[in-house]
Amino acid sequence: MIQQETPALPQGKDVLNWKIKTLARSPREMMITQSIFIAVYLTGCTLYMWGGWIMFSDSLYSLVGTVLALAGIFAYFTGLLIRQKTIYNYTLKTDGATVEYYLHYPDFASSFFKGIAIFVMLVFVLVAILTGSLLFLVGPVAMAFIAAIKLLNWENPVHHRQTAPWSLHEFVTVDHTRLMVIIHCDDITTGFAARFPSKALMD
């Protein structure tokens, strides 16, 4: 994982440590985003199927393959992007608190992405050799090739945040529904949100 540059962290004694994997956004925001995506995606899929119905009606394999591909794309965007969870590692200290957070991916994600990138690049090179023309690697294919190279170097970035000294905080907001405690300074935008895995730990 890529460690992002961090400012000076609280140096006090550790009081409490915990880890939680959860959705970064509120349920309301998730529902709105997911509903809009589903509506737009289903509309696009319906128009696509309607426009190519003559071809699909002549070939059952094309119809089944297209439906499976569209279902796979839908599952990818919904499960991996819209509803992707974030892992938070909290440390509560005597003079402040810190959190390290990063997106949750399966353990095999890095190898999987690199495998896809290598496969795509090999396919492009093989097609260019078979066609005998490097013009194949110009245009959209060149953009896809660059994207594959970036995917080959993919790392999951790790982010850090910390509170101001405890003495500077003015008030606290407690969200019992989402098991969150948010501490604020005079400027409400500098708040620090702590997510808890259970009500017992939050209390």
TrEMBL record:
It comes from Pseudomonas caricapapayae. The keyword Transmembrane applies. The keyword Transmembrane applies. The chain crosses the membrane at residues 35-54, 60-82, 116-149. Keywords: Membrane, Transmembrane, Transmembrane helix. This is Permease. It comes from the Bacteria.
